[in-house]
Design goal:
Rossmann fold, 7 helices, 5 strands, about 10% strand
């Protein structure tokens, strides 16, 4: 029997409140390319001017993140800069925590290629959540690592607001986990736009059928 990639399935009702924030528009978005290798993503391709403006607009409209919010972010430059802006804006009590498990999904041979490649990758995802075509990280592998972050938060904290700052596919797959969907179905959920915050609630019953 295959072990589920979703680490949330073994948890009862969640004891913390979770929110997802996709990083602001980045220089990679600006160039229309895929940047998923830490060798590139952790050293460059930070926020664009548009991305910073998007974040200011998002934060202006967000009055429910308290200063003691726990902020956990991918260590990619675009996510880290997003986390720093959020922390400064809300007067956060703690510095953002950087966690490699929230990194962008690795897209193999498509690194630095045109982002039009996403469509074919997502079609392959829908056929097989373990697919690693062209060296792409499988949806199940992403789900294992991102849900592990939540499982650890549930162990370490209680009654806290936790903001997870990450990337398009990583958050798409995390949403699927909260909805108890198979990782192959992540594109069935509304996609987070750059600089969008969305609450995450664990559904009470399986939606995998």
């Amino acid at each position: 029997m295959t072990v589920s990639a979703n680490r949330l399935l073994s948890l009862g009702p969640l004891v913390n409140r979770y929110h997802a924030l996709r990083h602001g528009h980045s220089r990679a978005n600006q160039q229309g390319i895929i940047v998923s290798d830490p060798a590139n993503g952790c050293r460059g391709f930070g926020l664009s001017a548009l991305g910073r403006a998007q974040l200011r607009e998002t934060l202006d409209a967000c009055d429910w993140l308290p200063p003691d919010t726990i902020i956990i972010s991918s260590d990619f430059t675009r996510a880290r800069e997003t986390a720093e802006m959020v922390c400064s804006w809300i007067g956060c009590d703690l510095l953002p925590q950087l966690d490699e498990r929230l990194r962008e999904r690795f897209f193999g041979v498509f690194e630095l290629a045109a982002d039009s490649a996403y469509a074919d990758i997502w079609q392959a995802d829908a056929r097989d959540p373990e697919q690693e075509t062209h060296g792409v990280e499988s949806p199940n592998a992403v789900m294992r690592r991102v849900t592990e972050v939540v499982a650890e938060c549930e162990h370490d904290h209680r009654d806290r607001d936790i903001l997870l700052i990450s990337h398009g596919d990583a958050l798409q797959i995390l949403q699927a986990a909260f909805h108890r969907l198979d990782a192959s179905r992540h594109r069935e959920l509304p996609h987070l736009q750059t600089a969008e915050i969305r609450g995450l609630s664990l559904t009470s019953e399986s939606s995998s059928d």
